[in-house]
Amino acid sequence: MDALEIARWQFGITTVYHFMMVPLTIGLGLVVAVIQTLWHRTGRPEYLRMTKFWGKLFLINFIMGVATGIVQEFQFGMAWSEYSRFVGDVFGAPLAMEALLAFFVESTFLGLWIFGWKQLKPAVHLACLWIAVIGSVFSAYFIIVANSWMQHPVGVEMIDGRPVMTDAWAVFTNNTALVAVPHTLFGALAVAGAFLLGIAWYHLWRRRHDGTDTVGPDGRVVPGSSDIPGRDRADHAVWIRSLRIGAVVAMISFAGTAVTGDLQGKLMFDQQPMKMAAAEAACHDGTGFSILSVGNVGSKNCDDVVAVIEVPGLLSFLAEGDFTTEVRGVNSLLDQYKADYGTHLPDNPIYGDRAGKEIQYVPVMEVTYWGFRMMIGFGGVAALAALAALWLTRKGTVPASRGLMRLAVFGILAPFGANAAGWIFTEMGRQPFVVAPNPDPSGIDQVFMFTAAAVSPGVSAGELLTSLVVLTAVYAVLLVVEVKLLVKYVRGGVASAMPELAHAPADENEDQTPGGGPGKPGADDVLAFAY
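Below the sequence we write its predicted structure tokens.
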């Protein structure tokens, strides 16, 4: 393995790990803000409990996300210095705004929310959460603006071999970013929806398993109470409402990702046609969409790939919005790429010993082909599971089956898999470019950068391998820590986020209103909630 390959593995491992936390932070933050708004408007105790419980899990994930995200910044300078020099003039604005504006706003108001339960007026306290959540959305927007410029460079002029921003508005309103942002947000909400559904199903199952809830002759649930802290009738309302909110969010999110994904796909067919052709293993021009292909998907010319299940006209619809326009395949695109950008890497010192090597314009099709299908498949499975969950819980509780409970819990991973597969497809499909060429014949079509030119020339393969091993080990430890924390507080239920429930009278639990009262969180709960 040379330095470039190791650097790519390092960036891929750390970024995929970090990105697993990003959608949960964004999606769960939005859901918690809505739930607290419901508590503020209605005063119902279950909404307070839901805010505290889901808010605690949100904070655990947020903290881990910050810790793992810091590494991304260092990687640019350590392993990708040439890339940083090339994109620096463009990336400076969105990344500075993400750090100085969005992240600082997000972290500041999140701190006020954590410690302001008793100190701030309810409306102000709620506003702090909303500002923090909106800050996280803007943070995602600025990051996606930077990434979208790599997918579709606009608003720049080449000066001394480097792109210099000449039109900030074009960069911040890049059509690639404007479609990617809502697609990412819907994907984040899909993660949050499955998260709520799976955990709520587990707790409703526990209530049935230990006899707290029973089922009447008509099949409807009869909520009960037990001596377990927090396990009262209001606790049942927490979980059934959480499950239904999660299921509805999951289904709406899938519809949103489908619509925005279609728009994003049409842009990709225009801006990065080789990526989409590789996603289809479409060797030749045509109109059919392959549901399943067999053969050597990884071969360079893919001539032996055969579509087993194909939908005629669907590929044309995904690309052009009709059913008849032929979409260019890998082989014809390969000739165009070679004519436009050369067959071999330039004889330039920036490429090191990679100079003069043949350029592989076809990305790894096993990754793009299956990544594209995993992204859609996992998302569809999660949406169908949410629909089934609403039907199965229509009488107020979940079935007594342990197997269904485990399936619901493991189903939490489905939208995580869809998000990860989508990110891997997007980034791997762009190869061999780290900044993809703009096909628009407007004078800036020569703004591109080969990945082979982006790696730091002064860093050896041994140094990169050492950092890869160390960072992977550190991230593995952080993964264990996060999973243990999440499992601990999930199993503890609402009482793990509201210690006062363990020693509060039952009637006190029913009097938790936005304006105060006996059930209002006390000062002793503030530090417990903030860990």
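The longest strand covers residues 289-294.
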